[in-house]
Design a protein that fits this description.
Layout (H helix, E strand, L loop, with lengths): L11 E7 L14 E6 L5 E6 L3 E9 L5 E11 L4 E6 L12 E6 L4 E5 L5 E5 L1 E2 L5 E2 L3 E4 L5 E6 L2 E6 L7 E5 L9 E6 L6 E6 L4 E5 L2 E6 L6 E6 L5 E6 L5 E6 L5 E7 L10 E3 L5 E5 L4 E6 L18 E4 L5 E6 L5 E6 L9 H7 L4 E6 L1
Antiparallel strand pairs: 1-30, 2-3, 3-4, 4-5, 6-7, 7-8, 8-9, 10-11, 12-13, 13-14, 14-15, 16-17, 17-18, 18-19, 20-21, 21-22, 22-23, 24-25, 25-26, 26-27, 28-29, 29-30
Organism: Aphis glycines (Soybean aphid)
Family: Belongs to the TCAB1 family.
Protein name: WD repeat-containing protein 79
């Protein structure tokens, strides 16, 4: 992300918001958004929501090429609760009819969708011990897009993208990662033979050439997200309720943490964070309706025996409800945020109505 040096992530200017597309008429159903992601070409935003739908929004611009509004161009219905969803990494720039999305949902195979027309392009199936189709919990393309990495309970499955069906390579993780669900997978952007996985048992596994090399431990709750720094030398990890820290791991001294960044996570849902492509800023959602930002290129003196907590750069209110999705534009100073969460039945009705915010917003970073 090429941020002008005058931009210090001190404030955001709202460009547009979209909420009508997520409203439900069923009062018994608690709709909420569950994250947002920019496409690799920066032209579309993908959202996940409680109603088992993926929605694709394009940015409409005016004559001066300034962002004007979010326009929903497609909607994809999955069969169950959507666990993970990713854009194909190398969007075909010269094609107007192909833009791919991979998704996994409860009790369903893995689906590869065409985001332009909403058609199903391919299906990948993992089978359980009684030879029935089993879902996976996490997804990731390798950097070329030629392989699909899938995580589930106690195993990783690797598919060739051009070979739909049930042909895959399987890596068992039960012996080393506490027989837990693989909740997140991420590829190293520099050494592309290395990838990391996080589990709900709080373990982080670092793999090289599909072989486990290191295990990182230190979180108090299950891991929900991992992200490498752009230089591939650091790994950031975030977890769910019970652990507010985003932890930065030093991969040059494996097992050592450089610092942590404190946010507010009071639910088990995934609260996303993102890193600017120049590696200068970390931004995270909070359950308080705010985003927090930290500057990463500052020098921090470490006291003997003391853990370093990264100083907060800014905290900015953006929604009236939990901010579960944050996604930085790949090249422009733009931020997409998504909000929503389930509210308890015993919540005060008036207060619940006040705090409910189901919306996708687009911001300019200033």
């Amino acid at each position: 992300m090429e941020i002008n040096h005058a931009v210090q992530f001190k404030d955001l200017q709202l460009i547009c918001t979209c909420s009508d597309d997520f409203l439900m008429n069923d009062k018994e159903f608690q709709q909420c958004l569950k994250g947002c992601k920019w496409s690799t070409d920066g032209l579309s935003i993908l959202t996940n929501s409680e109603d088992k739908r993926l929605r694709i929004f394009n940015i409409e611009t005016n004559e001066t090429n300034q962002c004007k509004q979010l326009h929903k161009v497609n909607e994809i219905k999955e069969g169950g609760t959507i666990y993970d969803y990713v854009w194909y990494p190398n969007t075909m720039q010269n094609s107007n009819d192909v833009k791919l999305i991979l998704s996994t949902s409860n009790r369903s195979p893995i689906h590869l969708w065409n985001a332009i027309d909403g058609e199903l392009e391919a299906t990948y199936r993992v089978y359980d011990h009684v030879d029935e189709v089993a879902h996976v919990n996490s997804l990731c393309f390798n950097w070329s897009g030629e392989e699909i990495y899938c995580g589930s309970y106690g195993k990783l499955n690797i598919f060739r993208t051009d070979r739909p069906g049930r042909e895959f390579t399987e890596i068992s993780t039960k012996a080393d990662l506490h027989r837990s669900i693989i909740s997140t997978i991420v590829m190293n952007p520099v050494d592309r033979s290395i990838f990391a996985v996080g589990t709900y048992s709080k373990d982080i596994g670092i793999y090289g050439g599909n072989q486990l090399m290191y295990i990182l431990r230190g979180h108090k709750s299950g891991i929900t997200q991992l992200q490498f720094s752009p230089d591939g030398l650091k790994l950031y990890s975030g977890s769910r309720k019970g652990d507010n820290d985003i932890v930065c791991w030093d991969l040059r001294n494996v097992g050592q943490t450089l610092y942590s960044a404190e946010r507010t996570v009071t639910t088990n849902q995934k609260i996303c964070f993102d890193i600017s492509s120049d590696g200068q800023y970390l931004v995270s959602g909070n359950c308080t309706g705010e985003i927090s930002t930290w500057k990463l290129n500052q020098i921090i003196e470490k006291s003997d025996g003391a853990e370093i907590v990264l100083p907060l750069n800014s905290k900015i209110p953006v929604h009236n409800d939990c901010v579960n999705g944050v996604s930085l534009h790949p090249t422009l100073p733009l931020l997409a945020t998504a909000s929503g969460q389930r509210h308890h039945e015993n919540d005060n009705d008036e207060q619940q109505l006040k705090d409910t915010d189901i919306s996708l917003k687009l911001w300019e970073i200033i």
